[in-house]
Records
---
Amino acid sequence: MNRPPPTEPPPAVRGFIFDLDGVLTDTAEFHYRAWQRLADEEGLPFSRAVNEHLRGVSRRESLMLIVQDRAYAEDQLQAMMARKNQYYLDAIQDIRPADLLPGARPLLEEIKAAGLKAALGSASKNAAEVIDRLGLRPLLDVIADGHSVAQPKPAPDLFLYAAEQLGLLPAACAVVEDAAAGVTAAIAGGFRSVGLGPPERVGDAEVIFPSLAGVTLTKLLAALA
Ligand code: G6P
Ligand code: MG
């Protein structure tokens, strides 16, 4: 009798790469409000619904999605990005550990206690400041942020950098994302993927939860098994 050829089981998940904005804390809302203020000042159409497409997208790409085919000189674009960033920086000054989203800290603590690895994988150039304000540094083995790689999500580069720094293969890492661009990046890099939010946004992820609330390590590993 012919046996089917043995199929390689995926390696066990040894590490997690967390997006920041909209995953660990609600700074996605601050990014949105900063863009909305800029768009209103510039008379550019923008809304919360349009903002869904900006989740996880770099500062420059976000601005390009807002200005679309309107002609702006490079120095005008730079000035608008700087203004938006200042609005965002103003908004994050008061962030405290209490601003962590439900479930985020307990999950990171469980990961550490279990001897697994955790990295940040955020496109934001302000991510390190937010992580410090949230008091999360001691729970993260690696910080990969908007300064780490040239190609932003949906390219897999940021997550590949994080996995390399963790010393793990992509297939042994699960990326936790709230953005379509982030889920696409995870899949492109050969990572396991966990989407947080509505299926319309993160439906391509292997595993989907509404948020990290109530998501224990056991639950997460079982869902990925
Ligand atoms: C994250 C956020 C985006 C933001 C991007 C760049 O991916 O989800 O909304 O545009 O980071 O952030 P930055 O702080 O560098 O402008
Ligand atoms: Mg995000």
Note: The mean pLDDT is 95.
---
Amino acid sequence: MSTITEVAARTTIISSDPATGEKLAELACATPEEVHEAVRRARQAQPSWQALSVAERVAVLKRFQRKLSERRDQVATLISREAGKPTAEAMTTEILVVLDAAEFCIRTAHSFLRDEPLPHGNLAMKTKRGRLVREPYGVIGIIAPWNYPFSLPATETLAALVVGNAVVLKPSELTPLVALELQKLLVEAGLHPDLIQVVIGAGPVGGALLESEIDKLVFTGSVATGKRVAEIAARRLLPAVLELGGKDPMIVLEDADLDVASSGAVWGSMVNAGQTCLSIERCYVQRSVYEKFLGLCREKIEKLRVGEGLGSEVEMGPLIQERQVHTVEEHVTDAVTRGARLLAGGRRMSELGLNFYAPTLLADVTHEMRVMSEETFGPVLPVASFDADDDAVALANDSEFGLAASVWTGNRKRGEAIAARIKAGTVMINDAISGFGIAEAPHGGFKQSGIGRTHGKLGLDEMVQVKYVDVDLLPRMPKVWWYGYGIGFQRQMSSFMDMLFASGIGARIKGALGAVGALRRSNRI
Ligand code: NAD
């Protein structure tokens, strides 16, 4: 236990409402020793959790799911207050996603964890039976960002827990209260507190978790931090999943329903004030419908109701902090200076409170502008035109990121053909972002957008080590390939290969006759 003087001397973080700056809580950061101690306790508690039956672990997830469903209003309100997003969005993109992810784990855990028989093709190995066994790693460290402070760590935590791991979670320093609420719900559902621990603090606390005795890390955050984390993980050969940034392109073909596509573009670029890893960050529209599409987007953007997330009529809240507003401002200024047309927004909305930026529409953008090459992470829809489908594919792929993309068209075949050529972890046709809400669908990126997957079966795969177990069915029989080599044995093995692989039935029969002697070798050691 820390003494009062020690606690007073510690670094603290302040959780505050991004719209008003109101202080919600001041929390002491975990010291490196406390992080190591949390991992030690998790390691101690994990074996008995792993030893439970799948049904017993699933029962905890079911109780968690029920509690979350009952307390959804309270949790959504907390998310709105700490992260600034509209409560309706907290419901759909955070709570609903987690309830569904829990359902997926509950439904899938039994079949996923059942041993998988592995039939052998090689004739020489037919007297063995093999199977794949999936075992938890032990302790999974999760480092999470602030933009989806509930759904990101919760979906990863549920997947880790259901297969038998313990979790130590380092939430963003901007949204610690939401992570503590997740922990509370799980403990109330009957999970031992040592199996879900939350270590509070900023980068250095994440660093301490990375240096601790965790068995695997699931990191979600920016490319810059992800690279630093990957370097440290590589030094210790710590397996790591990296879910990093994105610059997702949207391609609108001339045969798309422009009313639907423009609504999709506005929602997909402005949801969570554009602070979504899967946000539409670049939009390419076929030239013949370009001006019409821009007109529709402008009309819809101007109708958006901006305000504090807690207001029930609000559609877009503030950005998370001043630094984020500053980046958006820089990107928009750079674009306009280089010749982009500003059709809506392009200014702070200080009259509403802190960190508000108006929903912004830019036209005629190019890849020389920062708004088309760097992650903006704000309420900006930059639009450019293209002529042929090949041009759209080239533009979409001209990015260091590859998280997701979307193609909008009335012709599914044409959309699929473009989707096949886009280098991204997810490509959606006639929708964007919602792949994250499909519990079965994997989430993760190509290129700089990350390594590994969360969500779905591939997400569960990341939480287990696969062990191959093999049983020999003839334990009293020495193996033909063991010692006692010589020219005779060499010929027998050559014949054995003819028996299996020679072309022509005659050569194969001859091979079989030559190989049979290997079973009766007298010079075996
Ligand atoms: P960030 O990289 O600044 O921080 C992410 C987390 O890492 C935070 O908890 C932070 O405290 C911690 N951290 C910072 N320095 C660290 C260090 N040296 N060692 C260990 N941990 C450290 O990112 P952010 O600003 O919180 O989040 C926004 C970014 O996250 C955007 O780039 C966004 O695209 C990305 N993101 C990606 C996904 C995805 O699934 N691919 C989802 C959400 C957000």
Note: The chain has 18 helices and 20 strands.
